[in-house]
Amino acid sequence: MGVDFVLLDSDDRLIGNAVSYRDKRTNGVMNEICSQIGDEELYAKTGIQFMDFNTICQLKKLPEEVKLQAKSFLMIPDYLNYLLTGKKVNEYTNATTTQLYNVEANKWDEELIEFVGLKKRYFMKHFLRYQKSAS
């Protein structure tokens, strides 16, 4: 669930179903991404291990018509939160697992998001961060 997501349209409806990373549709996509971006640059930006099921691979592999309909990106836990609260936010630790979050700049990486064919504005600007309770 740490790499899986949903896309919502302009009416905040799901575009298709959420798809689990546990299939073969993204086999080899990470190699393609690294050859185009550069593995050192990608790792320097995100600090995430290169795996074919990473969110960046799943998004890169989506059909263009799906990407054109998208207006919001939510990780699965964020989507559940949205259904319960009506608030669209990205939880920080989940965002950092996408391989689209620049850990040095501490924000979504616009170049990587555009590389997969989406717009940065579809990604929530405000992060839900959980704080330790005082004991």
Automatic annotation (TrEMBL):
<dbReference type="Pfam" id="PF00370">
    <property type="entry name" value="FGGY_N"/>
</dbReference>
<dbReference type="InterPro" id="IPR043129">
    <property type="entry name" value="ATPase_NBD"/>
</dbReference>
<dbReference type="GO" id="GO:0016301">
    <property type="term" value="F:kinase activity"/>
</dbReference>
<comment type="similarity">
    <text>Belongs to the FGGY kinase family.</text>
</comment>
<dbReference type="InterPro" id="IPR050406">
    <property type="entry name" value="FGGY_Carb_Kinase"/>
</dbReference>
<protein>
    <submittedName>
        <fullName>FGGY family carbohydrate kinase</fullName>
    </submittedName>
</protein>
<keyword id="KW-0418">Kinase</keyword>
<feature type="domain" description="Carbohydrate kinase FGGY N-terminal">
    <location>
        <begin position="2"/>
        <end position="123"/>
    </location>
</feature>
<dbReference type="InterPro" id="IPR018484">
    <property type="entry name" value="FGGY_N"/>
</dbReference>
<keyword id="KW-0808">Transferase</keyword>
